[in-house]
Amino acid sequence: MASTTAPASATHAVLRAEARLFAREPAALFWVMASPTVLLVILGLVPSLREASDDLGGRRVIDVYVPVAVLFALIMAGLQAMPPVLAGYRERGILRRMSATPVRPAALLTAQLVLHAAAALVSSLLVVGVGRVAFGVALPGNLPGYLGALLLAVAVGLALGAAVCALSRTQRIATAVGTAVFFPTMFTAGVWVPVQVMPDTLRRIVEFSPYGAASRALDEAARGGWPGPLALGVMGVWAVALTAVAIRRFRWE
């Protein structure tokens, strides 16, 4: 019993320590937890984006951008916040030194995944709340379907971030690779152009990307339906594939 309790207590200590460090990073807190809501507010202040559009089936652009802002939070957590931290720990030898202690390096990796997942989910809740209160955006019509799609999108986002970290030997490389992947994912998530108004051929291609599929799934659930099996399947395949890459290529030192 004691041998089981000690590692568990050590893991909890790592999680608490990483949470304190994360809370002391104002840049990470802003970009992951605040910037998606700021983006939504800026867009919501544009009068034309609060008007119904025939291209969106009578919906407003601001209605479509709530799921997009949710995905923006996942992109920031998975690609901009987490990979440099983990790569920095590895580059400084922290993971290697932890292997000689009761706390295995995997505890640090788990703590980072939990923290960034929690931050992304809190940010998503803030986006949905502000959208509802400030701009009258309807709450998701199918809440269980929306939550399921959101959790799967979080898994995809963190798997992508873990893969970037696994393929990057240093913190500088992790930042560079994360930034290079950041812009295509922003496009496929619909940050610049909503996926719903893209030309049909381009939209079908985009919806086979991780965030394109996530955008479709969240939008379907927001409108009251169940996320389609194709969108969920695409996200599931990407999550498994990216996780496999991360596990296979990740090195502790």
TrEMBL record:
Quick one: where is this thing mainly located? membrane
Where in or outside the cell? Cell membrane; Membrane
Q: Which family does it belong to?
A: Belongs to the ABC-2 integral membrane protein family.
Where does the ABC transmembrane type-2 domain lie?
Answer: 27-253
Which species is listed as the source?
Streptomyces omiyaensis
Q: Which PROSITE patterns match?
A: ABC_TM2 (PS51012)
**This protein's superkingdom?**
Bacteria
The membrane-topology field of this record reads: Multi-pass membrane protein
Matches recorded under Pfam families? ABC2_membrane
**Keywords for this protein:** Antibiotic resistance, Cell membrane, Membrane, Transmembrane, Transmembrane helix, Transport
The keyword Membrane is annotated on this UniProt entry: yes
- Which residue windows are transmembrane per the record? 28-46, 66-86, 107-134, 146-166, 173-193, 226-247
Q: Which InterPro entries match?
A: ABC-2_transporter (IPR052902), ABC2_TM (IPR013525), ABC2_TM_bact-type (IPR047817), ABC_2_transport (IPR000412)
Write the protein's name: Transport permease protein
Q: Keyword Membrane: yes or no?
A: yes
